[in-house]
Design brief:
Binding site for Zn(2+) 2: 132, 165, 194
Organism: Streptomyces fodineus
Number of strands: 11
Helix content: 25-40%
Strand order of the largest sheet: 6-7-8-9-10-11
CATH topology: TIM Barrel
GO molecular function: hydrolase activity; zinc ion binding
CATH superfamily: Metal-dependent hydrolases
Strand content: 5-15%
Largest sheet: 6 strands, parallel
Shape: globular
InterPro entries: Metal_Hydrolase, Phosphotriesterase
Order of helices and strands: EEEHEHEEHHEHEHEHEHEHHH
Oligomer: single chain
Modified residues (N6-carboxylysine): 132
Number of helices: 11
CATH architecture: Alpha-Beta Barrel
Radius of gyration: 17 Å
Amino acid sequence: MSRVRTVLGDIPPEQLGVCDAHDHLFLRSPQLPGQELEDLSAARAELAAFRAAGGAAVVQWTPYGMGRRAADLPELSRATGVRLVCATGLHQAAHYDTQLLDRLRGGGLAELFVSELTEGIATTGVRAGFIKVAGGFHALDAHTRRTMTAAAEAHHATGSTIAVHLELGTGALDVLDLLCGELGVPGDRVILGHLNRHPDPVVQRQAAASGCWLAFDGPSRAHNATDWRMPEAVRALAEAGFADRLLLGGDTVVAGARSVDGGLGMPYLLRRVRHRLAAAVGADLVDRILTEHPGRAFAVDWR
């Protein structure tokens, strides 16, 4: 039976509730100096604000080695009543120091992902609920191919979903060719993040036709067409028959983007984006995107 693996244990997908399907409570990267998400009290306040806006679950896409603070997630979930799903996986090489990358290049990357999914993240007891990897700008470099190959191996061992950061929304079809074509991952086990940042309707339809999930994420910060063109893109995909392949997320990646630090943050997804999309495609579909779809996308028959 399929279950969503939260930091407090596995639950039936229908219990996930209103879900921000792509966001971050904690994140650290040399690409974002001085903008780290590291404040525990701010994370708690942000989750409380999301809960007050009607939210029930957040999927944190922060992968291995980027300050995801897995040990703090269970207590945050208990304190706020928000269900949390934690990632394993690896981001682009630019987000890591060379020593860590050299160690990971020594092998065992797939084994690391499987271990964090099944046995738990070292010293925390928290099991990851999915794998996060990343493509490059219009290309798949050697690091991307290595991490995606490891992610596919971990998928085949566990059934886990693979969520992909698309750099500025590009490279979607190359990612699908690799993951679903060469590496044999079923389309419905792949989530493409940030596809709305490169709003090519032809690519979006082609990607959706693979059976993958399209995550419209990033409204918490101004970035290309993430906000103002989102309703028309969602409507076009729904009219093309892909209404059941859509997810929504906030992708709060820097401290200033949190609502409690003066940004839009997680509540914006429910306070503004939800209603704007409802005007374009109807409240019923938006409710399914926020509740039913994340449960289906992240639920796994764990092996």
